[in-house]
Design brief:
This protein is an alpha+beta fold and 466 residues long. The chain has helices at residues 3-9, 17-69, 72-88, 98-101, 106-126, 174-213, 227-274, 281-306, 318-331, 350-367, 399-402, 410-415, 423-433; strands at residues 136-138, 144-152, 155-163, 314-316, 337-339, 346-348, 373-378, 382-388, 437-442, 448-455.
Length: 466
C-alpha cells in the first residue's frame, strides 16, 4: 500500500484542494522552522558553547589559584562572598518553575561536559590532584554551581562556586514559538486567500459542466484572471459552443430528413387508398400498417429534433397533464390507471413535457403489459410523474444503455417491435431541459417504471407560482 493510499485510509489527507494546500503550507513552515533551529544550533549555539566553556575554564582556574594564595581562614569567606554576588546577578525564579529549572537543558549539558573536559585536561597538564571530572549542580534559584576541590594542609577541601549567566537555561523561548505560530498563521491566511481566488473559477467550471451533462446550456464562463484559469474558462466555453453547434446541426438534419420523408409517405398512403379496390384486402391493410409505422418513426425523429426547442415555461399542474394524457389514450381504446397525488403547480414547458409523457406511455403499451399506471407525486424539493407497466421488465444493468438514442431492448428488437428507439431519449432530454432527470426502475418480471423528476424551481430556477 502506498503512502498516499495509507494517508487517505486514515483520513489525514484532505479531499479539497484548499485543505491540501493549507496542510502542505503548514508542513513546509514547520519543516522550515525545524531546519532553521538545527542550523542555529549547529552554527551559533555550539560554537558559543566552546567559546564560553574556554572562558569559564580559565576563570575557574584563576579562582582556584586565588583560593590557593589565600590563607585557609579566608577561603570560606571569599567563596561565600563570591557566591553572594553571583546569586544577585540571577533574576528571581517563580516557585512553580524552580523544579523545572533545576534540570540541565541539553545545551547546558554539552557546556558542562566541555568545561569538565577542559578542566580535566588542564589538571592532567599541571599534574594537579584535582579530580578529572568536576561536579555540577543547579539549585532551586537557577544558579549553576561547580564544585572546586582544594588540597589544604588538613586534607582536601571542596567549595561550590556559583557561575551566574554562563549560558542560557533554555535554547528556545516562548518568543520563538510565538514567531513560528504567527508566521504559520500569516502563511495559511495567504494560502487561503490565493486558493479562494483559484477555487471560485474552478467551482464555476464544475457547475457549468454539470449543467452541460444535464443537457442544459451553461452560462459563459469568465475568461479573466491568471493565464491558466483564463485558459480553462476559454477552453470550456469553446467546448460548450462546439457541442451546442453539433447538437443543433444534428437536430436540423433529423428534422429535415423527417420532414422530407413525410411527402413520399403521404403519397404512398394515398396510392394504397386509391388502389384499395384493385389490391388484395390483407395486402392493402399490411401496406397501410407499414406506412403508419414508418410515419410513427418519422414522428419520433421530429420529436427528438424538437425536444431542445425553446419554449417559455409556465406554471401548470402535473395532475392536469396526466388527466389529459389519460383522456387522449382513452380515445384510442387504451385504458390507463390514474393515481394522482397532491401537487403544487410548477413551471414547465407543456408541449415538451407532453411529448415526453406520450413517448413513455407508448413504450409501456408496446413493450410492457397491462395494467399501465400513470402516477404523480412529489416531495419538499421536487415533483414527479411516472408511467409503470406490468411487463417482463429488464435487467438493471441495461437501463442506462436504454437511455441512448436509437437503442431498444434486446427482447423488443428481436421481436421486431415498431419504433426507432428514441422514446426514452426524448423523455430524458425533456427532463434535463427542465433541470430534472429521467429515473428508470425495473427488475426481471416486475415491469418498468419510468419517472420524470422535475424540480419545484423550474427549468431556469424560476420559483413556482400559482
Amino acid at each position: 500500500m502506498t503512502a498516499s493510499a495509507t494517508t487517505r485510509r486514515w483520513g489525514l489527507w484532505p479531499r479539497s484542494l484548499l485543505g491540501r494546500n493549507l496542510l502542505l503550507m503548514a508542513v513546509l513552515i514547520v519543516l522550515g522552522q525545524l531546519v532553521a533551529a538545527v542550523l542555529v544550533r549547529q552554527m551559533i549555539f555550539k560554537p558559543r558553547v566552546v567559546q564560553v566553556a574556554d572562558g569559564v575554564a580559565r576563570n575557574v582556574a584563576a579562582l582556584r589559584a586565588g583560593l590557593q594564595a589565600l590563607p585557609p581562614a579566608q577561603r570560606g569567606a571569599f567563596v561565600e562572598a563570591f557566591n553572594r554576588q553571583a546569586a544577585l546577578a540571577i533574576p528571581p525564579v517563580a516557585p512553580e518553575s524552580a523544579a523545572r529549572r533545576a534540570l540541565l537543558s541539553p545545551m547546558e549539558r554539552q557546556f558542562v561536559l566541555a568545561v569538565s573536559r577542559r578542566l580535566g585536561a588542564d589538571g592532567a597538564a599541571t599534574q594537579s590532584p584535582q579530580p578529572p571530572q568536576p561536579l555540577w549542580r543547579r539549585d532551586s534559584t537557577g544558579v549553576l554551581a561547580l564544585r572546586v576541590v582544594h588540597q589544604g594542609a588538613d586534607g582536601p577541601e571542596s567549595y561550590w562556586l556559583n557561575l551566574p549567566s554562563v549560558f542560557p537555561t533554555r535554547e528556545f523561548t516562548g518568543a520563538w514559538l510565538m514567531a513560528t505560530l504567527v508566521s504559520m498563521l500569516l502563511a495559511l491566511l495567504g494560502a487561503w486567500w490565493l486558493q479562494r481566488h483559484i477555487h471560485r473559477p474552478l467551482a464555476q467550471v464544475v457547475v457549468a459542466a454539470r449543467q452541460l451533462a444535464r443537457g442544459q446550456t451553461p452560462a459563459v464562463l469568465p475568461e479573466a484572471g491568471p493565464e491558466e484559469i483564463a485558459t480553462v474558462g476559454r477552453s470550456f466555453n469553446q467546448m460548450a459552443q462546439s457541442l451546442a453547434a453539433a447538437d443543433h446541426e444534428r437536430a436540423l438534419m433529423l428534422a429535415g430528413v423527417s420532414h422530407d420523408l413525410r411527402t413520399p409517405l403521404t403519397k404512398l398512403r394515398l396510392g394504397v387508398e386509391i388502389a384499395g379496390a384493385q389490391v388484395d384486402a390483407p395486402l392493402a391493410a399490411s401496406m397501410a400498417r407499414s406506412i403508419d409505422e414508418m410515419d410513427g418513426i418519422v414522428g419520433q425523429f421530429l420529436q427528438f429534433a424538437r425536444s431542445g426547442e425553446a419554449e417559455a415555461p409556465i406554471a401548470a399542474s402535473l395532475n392536469d397533464l396526466a388527466q389529459t394524457v389519460v383522456e387522449a389514450q382513452a380515445d384510442h381504446g387504451r385504458a390507463l390507471v390514474l393515481e394522482l397525488g397532491a401537487l403544487p403547480d410548477v413551471p414547465v414547458r407543456p408541449q415538451a413535457l407532453r411529448r415526453a409523457l406520450d413517448n413513455l406511455v407508448e413504450n409501456a403499451w408496446r413493450h410492457g403489459a397491462v395494467p399501465v399506471v400513470l402516477r404523480t407525486g412529489g416531495g419538499a424539493q421536487q415533483v414527479w410523474i411516472e408511467v409503470a407497466d406490468h411487463g417482463i421488465g429488464m435487467d438493471a444493468n441495461e437501463l442506462d444503455h436504454m437511455r441512448q438514442p436509437f437503442v431498444r431492448g434486446g427482447g423488443a428488437a428481436r421481436a421486431g417491435a415498431p419504433g426507432a428507439g428514441l422514446g426514452l431519449a426524448i423523455a430524458e432530454r425533456v427532463a434535463r431541459a427542465h433541470g430534472g432527470a429521467l429515473e428508470l426502475h425495473s427488475a426481471p418480471g416486475q415491469g418498468l417504471r419510468a419517472r420524470l423528476v422535475l424540480p419545484l424551481a423550474g427549468p431556469g430556477g424560476e420559483p413556482a407560482t400559482a
